[in-house]
């Protein structure tokens, strides 16, 4: 099974990911707090990340993902939903400030 590295910013934590896992799966497996109010089914925009490296290796976002991203704060040209990014290459992703704030709602 293929393994890749995913680096999460701003914490600068690099973890190993298994092909077939999403960026959200990878974050949760390694204790990285990333909100995911809908449970990771592309039903919200709370797991929004900005892909800093590896964006070109990703397939295009689906129409549904694009619709959800329209609701994300800090939207960027390389924004994606972590629940929709299958890890198939090394990636660097930034968790925007709004998605790092889990204090008011707690983890899901």
Pick out its properties.
108 residues, alpha+beta, Ubiquitin-like (UB roll), 3 helices, 17% helix
What does this structure look like?
The chain is α+β, with helices and mostly antiparallel strands. It has a single domain (3-100), classed as Ubiquitin-like (UB roll) (Roll), CATH 3.10.20.30. The chain is built from three helices and five strands. The chain has helices spanning 23-29, 63-69, 97-100, and strands spanning 3-9, 13-18, 48-53, 79-81, 91-94. A five-stranded mixed sheet has the order 2-1-5-3-4. A hairpin with a 3-residue loop joins strand 1 and strand 2 (13-18). The radius of gyration is 12 Å and the shape is globular.
Q: What's the overall average pLDDT, rounded? A: 91
What is the CATH third-level topology name?
Ubiquitin-like (UB roll)
* Coarse structural class: alpha+beta
- Number of E-state strands: 5
Q: Helicity range of the residues? A: 10-25%
Spatial shape: globular
Distance between the termini: 29 Å
The CATH architecture category equals Roll
Q: Uncertain spans, ≥5 residues at pLDDT below 50?
A: 101-108
Q: Sketch the topology as an H/E string, one letter per element.
A: EEHEHEEH
User: Strands across the major sheet, in which order?
Assistant: 2-1-5-3-4
Task: Kindly estimate the percentage of residues that lie in beta strands according to DSSP.
Answer: 15-25%
Radius of gyration: 12 Å
For the biggest sheet, the summary is: 5 strands, mixed
By DSSP (H or I, 4+ residues per run), the number of helices equals: 3
Oligomer: single chain
Fourth-level CATH superfamily: Beta-grasp domain
CATH class: Alpha Beta
- For the record, the count of structural domains works out to 1
